[in-house]
Amino acid sequence: MSPRAASSTAGADTRRFDMLVLLALAVAVWQGLYEYAGEVAITPPLATVRYAAELLGTAGFWDHVAETVKAFVYALVISAALGVAVGMVLGLRRFAGDVAEPILVALYTIPKVTLYPVMLLIFGLGLSAKVAFGVIHGVIPVILFTLNAVKNVNPVYLRTARVLRLGQWRTATTVLAPAVTPEIITGLRVGFSLTMLGVLIGEMFASQRGLGFLIINGINSHNVRLTTAVILVVIVFAIAANTLLLALDHRLHRGAR
Amino acid sequence: MSRAARIAWWRAGVIVGAVLLLELLCRAEIISRLVLLPPSEMAATLWELLLAGEVNQHMAQTFSTVAIAFALAVVIGFLVGAAIHRLPRIRRAVDPLLASYYSIPFFVFYPLLIALFGLNTVPLIVIGFVFAMAAMVIATLNGLDRVPRVLLKTAKIHRLGRVRSVLLVTLPAAAPYLFTGLKLALAYSFIGIIAGEFILSGGGLGYSIAYAYESFDNRTMYALMLFVLLIVTVMNMALHLWEQRLLKRRSR
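Output (structure tokens, whole complex):
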């Protein structure tokens, strides 16, 4: 084992420890909030975990989860495919990319929540509105990351491909794709988070099912226990999924160097 | 014509073309009036609203809330980012949290904040601040990571004190990333606050849009949406221009 690998395993131990400390801190703050604000605002950590576990045991809850996951997967696939395709095209046609990029950045920064009535008017209540909401949140970061990745590919690679007389298709698959994959994964990670945010918001406003609906329903009926438990489930899922993607991201970026 | 000018013209052309296309589709009733109004009508209604001053109070509320949240997020986000940068151990622990930060729909905490602070603008400020701060923290970390070592060594050779080397070397070198943080923080404080106003609030632009939607007042709704989009775009462009000027001065 190289010395560097040895030090990194020792680092992993302290890292795990630090994360536990962070987690304990978060739980302490949560308990503190409960002590301060009381039952009307939030349920304490232990009771919430217990109730969440109870929820996870009921079939009705899994229906809502399935609904959310379905909308999320549709939205994510559309965001990823559309985002990578558009980003590739804009990255390769530099002029079009330069024209489009600031427009995309502007679109990225507008508060898309304001558009939710339009989405409802166009798509009606239900799955398609939720998916559309997820896509408008998630697709732009994927486009931007892909565009920049393709634009910033080391020109030597492309020149080498030309010297080797690779055709357009083989250049794309054997040179361009491996070169831009790490950046695209980063883009997909950001897109993943925002798509999820979009789907949940869509469910909060425009749906009768799904986790977002459960949250807003809990808020409206003052069912603090339900709201807190569902929020906990959502947050745990978001952090877990992101940690996985982040690990993949790091590995690819290290491999690229 | 220079390349930059051509790009600018094309860009303007694309935007104007998109608006005109929308106008045409609406006028030709290909898009139903129930779904979307022609942009010209949105603009006209917005003009009337602004002249009548009906929504001024809501606008003032939203803008002041955003301004406070944005300022807090930038200052505290920068300080937190700088602190975390100096403590690699904490940074490693916080990293996954920062990475998944924006997949958490923060405004679900809004009811909790109302229970904590009461039904006024404080919960909105907190939402906007919490939502925007992480962007600033991440940008600060990015910027400080990418300060070239050579510059820091040069500062050391010139025997600059800590304060002067931060002011003269570190901050200017990290500036482009800090600007990205500013832009994102602005966008996110708008997003967080308007979303909060949508969900539960008695005032502000988000509330006005939701109210117009629920009372089937499409004209007001679209006028206000247009207003929000215009304001955010204008603010972003202003930041962008400022950034360009700073960068240009630096490259000399």
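The longest helix of chain B spans residues 162-199.
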